[in-house]
## 1
Amino acid sequence: MRGDRLGGMNSEPRRVEHQQTDRGNIPVYAAGTVEQPWDRYSRTDHEVWAQLFRRQREILKHRATREFLDNQERFGMSADAIPKFDDLNNVLSLGTGWEIVGVEGLLPDQVFFDHLANRRFPVTWWIRKPEQLDYISEPDLFHDLFGHVPLLLNPVFADYMQAYGRGGVKAHGIGADALMNLTRLYWYTVEFGLINTSEGLRIYGSGIVSSKGESVYCLESNAPNRLGFDLERIMRTRYKIDTFQQTYFVIDSFEQLMEATEPDFRPIYERLAPQPAFPAGEVQASDRVIHRGTGEGWIKSGDV
Ligand SMILES: [Fe+2]
């Protein structure tokens, strides 16, 4: 049986069904937490990790924010083997009181928010196949662990993630529009955020650091817009899920991110509700433009 992960020979995630949503046909997984089946990773699994780890560390050397790279070292992440969640948790719990929990895959919003609100970060336990090195449409262990976990050691970013989770629980109670506003904030910061540093623009978003192509494109291509961080602007901005982003938002510091989440979002949601959303690639007159994208190669349709 496919779902009999503990009894069978193959390590397969417990995928429950597929669900048609506005983001396409997405897999639905069992929503509970699981022990990381570390002993069951195959040699191929470890090799996939090693290849991705080496490749991204090289690409990110002068592209990711220094803290992201340093924190991977503080965790002892290396190409040698897939890290053990327990080892990472020893470092993480002492550092910021966060904890990694193993999951089967994407979680329902409410479950995900509840984890974050309680300083638990869900990490998909399985890793992509060798033929998916360059692209996988859903989060796997490499994306979650390599991409998300390092910045959880930053105290301010760690608090931001918790505030986001609490905001998510609230938004869920308010309605679908509020949830969409908040999802865009996560997308343009946690997943695809850039940060201004004394060394220049650097990447901190997990969706970027776990992608070979986007790690270069987001900083070096003339095509995308790079705009100053603006909470309400972001909450109104559609995004791309199947191509590189057309717009990146740049923060000056993690403190700026944290401060932006301090006000109650409810009045903001109410203000935004009657206003139309901005297309992913459109620059607005009020934007603080760091780079106006040429739009080269963009697919105009398909914003989420
Ligand atoms: Fe992610």
Note: The chain is about 40% helix and 15% strand.
## 2
Amino acid sequence: MTNRYSNRSKLSQAINDQPISSVALIMGDQLHAGHSWYKSTQDERLFVLMEMRQETDYVVHHRQKILAFFSAMRHFADALTTAGHRVLYLQLDAPDNTQSLTENLNWIVEQTTAKDVHLQQPDEYRVDQQLQQWAETANCAVHWHDSEHFLTQRDVLDRWFSGKSNTIMEHFYRRMRKETGYLMTVDGKPEGGQWNYDKENREKLPRDHDIPQPLCFANDVSVIDTMLERCEVKTMGHAEPRKLIWPVTRSQARELLSFFIENMLIHFGRYQDAMTTDGWSLYHARVSFALNTKMITPREVVDKAIEYWRSHQDTVSLAQIEGFVRQIIGWREYVRAIYWQRMPDYESVNHFNHNRELPDFYWTANTKMACLQHSINQSLDYAYAHHIQRLMVTGNFALLIGAHPDFVDRWYLGIYIDALQWVELPNTRGMSQYADGGVLATKPYISSGSYIQKMSHYCNDCHYQVQRKVGEKACPFNSLYWHFIDRHFDELSRNPRMALITKQWEKRADADKKELIQQANHYLESLEDL
Ligand SMILES: Cc1cc2nc3c(=O)[nH]c(=O)nc-3n(C[C@H](O)[C@H](O)[C@H](O)COP(=O)(O)OP(=O)(O)OC[C@H]3O[C@@H](n4cnc5c(N)ncnc54)[C@H](O)[C@@H]3O)c2cc1C
Ligand code: SF4
């Protein structure tokens, strides 16, 4: 068994008084069983995992997120021990736990007299800085290692596109296809002759369509839940600690991946943007937590999906597999590259100088707007919403009302099971809030109610009427959309992708404009009541 260290106060007990010459740190998002560190066992190396208040408290997290991370870490520690490695696992409630990563490291180095500490490159800037600073004064030699997870390095954008101030995802993606050979023919052409089959995807879900039930696990994490209670860790959202639905071991992560490939890939791209009250994850993979904790690797995800597609081309079209591969080798690697290229400035950009707080219903789902109510409710219930709910419902609304990106970031970083800053920040601040002024997106992702109606079943059951722009029960997205266009008119009219819309606004009669702006102002003054 792992020396899970909760109530014994002597580290020597945990390590059985055997000499330790090196310590290797494993962060909660570094649960990569295939890492070269574990190829052989070394008697004098101690692997260390720590639960810490520094990580539970840097933002208010969804309860399921903390439960899933700690449970996955504990399982990983046990698996290492079973494989013959020496492991120290510091629980959140261990008396000697200083709750700080670097203070714990100092304490462990001192107690073990280890001469060397091995670190995997962290994915979050905050942790990277903390460890870099610690390494400068540490009382031991510090050795850095690649996490061996991603397909690209942090500085890939500078290496591939040096000198170009802006690199769009599509260029990055094509280069990734060429570099990896994924979905490429032997003569170096994209499979099927096209790079991107997006136009064949993105359909609305038919009303009578039966979506397969998602695979949910029933992991008992009540011991961790009780510990969180005892330690008074502040969380948001709901959890059933005896039935945590998220994968917490590598074998569960692989099972979830296989389930997706065999049952969901068939319609992945087609209904990727669809929204419905009949289900909460539709044909999405729900592998982001497993990927972001590194329980599975992007390479195995893509290899398995392509292998399945190759032998099932009669049922799974090229458009479906291409759409999926693009998310993993395109978007996921791309946002990471943007993050490392742009940090630390990226976390404070606020292009539109927005400063409003998010309404309370982001934490309660207590709103009459059916789209927001459903998207937020399921986020509170499952710590999950799919991409279009995040982008075109909660993100869209936050941008239209002019919410400060700090508040928006904090909400996204807390609520989602997969939220780690390297992937959350570019998606939220960049893609969804356009706070970077167009680094990641070529135009702000805003829409009126008509897009939500086109892609969802929400509007039929809403208190508001999607066709109405002004007056009683007018859909708030409509007037807020035009209010946004009006207040950023000068900038938007210079963007070729927004030209049509800004021209439409320009041509409107002044009386119409006035009515729309008044309606929007009324809604902005009564956001909590919407
Ligand atoms: C405002 C906003 C915030 C987001 N925050 C996060 C976050 O904190 N963590 C996170 O992992 N993703 C985030 N995303 C991206 C995306 O929404 C999630 O990766 C996806 O919803 C996870 O669910 P899934 O595994 O079912 O994904 P699927 O739709 O099945 O896609 C498969 C995989 O592709 C990858 N992927 C797809 N889109 C993106 C993207 N835009 N960026 C990076 N990877 C992508 C993910 O690894 C995902 O698991 C955010 C998107 C938006 C618009
Ligand atoms: S009518 Fe407007 S507020 Fe209601 S669900 Fe549709 S888009 Fe959302």
Note: The radius of gyration is 24 Å.
